[in-house]
Amino acid sequence: MFIRKRTFDILNQMVDDALSGQFRESNYDESELSKLEVKWKRFLASSKLSSDKVREERDKVRELVSDISHQTKTPLANIMLYSQLLKERPLADEEKTLVDEIVLQSEKLEELITFLIKTSRLETGTFHMMRQQQELMELVEESEKLIDGKCRIKDIRLNRAITNGYIKARFDFKWTQEAFLNILDNAVKYAPQGSVVTIGMSETESFARLSVRDEGMGIPEEEIPLIFKRFYRGRQVGREEGVGIGLYLARQIVEEQGGYIRVKSKTGRGSCFEICLPKV
């Protein structure tokens, strides 16, 4: 019994030393454990090498995305500037159409690059979310202001179905607003002209919930598991503007904070997206 306990004590100490980064093979002189010591040392060396490689690859991706962003910013800005200058000149109808298309594609490319930078920061862990206890109503109000212009263009009315405006959650304001705006923007984009987009707020014991309900075309049941994939575009929305990364980014942001997004939709009867954020 004493020998068994001694063995377990040594094994326990080996694990503790490994976790603290202080494992040394010479620290253990029990002959019965010599083979295990060697294997354990090899395992730790392999794990460290793998961890270092992952970190190195992550740094390379971050550096690559940063370089792409920096190198494309100036030429893209120039393309958009020259396009605007062309639009101010007298042009034939066909030429105006071509210039408008250049502007549209340039804006789409700018949006794509911005999203790629944000997703890269999320996936490589190169940012720190400043989560704090705060009310959701401020996030709703600020987001409504930012989406108001698009609502006016399509004559869409934002409706608040909120009975309790003092619900709190623990979240990063900037990043969570990014997620909420992506969902709100989708609702406005795919909602019919002159329809209503409803924003709701509720809570459970553990989560605070923000919902966005539209009166649009809805999402086929078989597509619901796919809509949060990067670059996925539904069959019914292929002609609409967008790069298919907004919902992917929204889910990444919410899940990074311990929350989740739920979708309820039926074809021809609109969709409802719910962002659920932890209260603590």
* Distinct helical segment count: 6
Structural shape:
globular
Identify low-pLDDT runs. none
Give the ordered list of helices and strands.
HHHEHEEHEEHEE
* Helix amount: 40-55%
Please identify the structural class as seen in this structure: alpha+beta
Whole-number radius of gyration?
26 Å
Instruction: Find the count of extended strands (DSSP E, 2+ residues).
Output: 7
Main sheet?
5 strands, mixed
Strand content: 15-25%
Distance between the termini: 46 Å
Q: Please state the average pLDDT score.
A: 81
Give a description of the structure:
The structure is a single chain. The protein is of the alpha+beta class and about 280 residues long. It is about 55% helix and about 15% strand. Helix 3 (about 95-125) packs parallel to helix 6 and helix 4 runs parallel beside helix 5. The longest helix is centred in the N-terminal third of the chain and has 54 residues, at about 35-85. The radius of gyration is 26 Å and the shape is globular. The two termini are about 45 Å apart.
Task: Describe the structure concisely for a colleague.
This protein is 54% helix and 15% strand. The protein has six helices and seven strands.
Features:
280 residues; alpha+beta; 5-stranded mixed beta sheet; 15% strand; globular
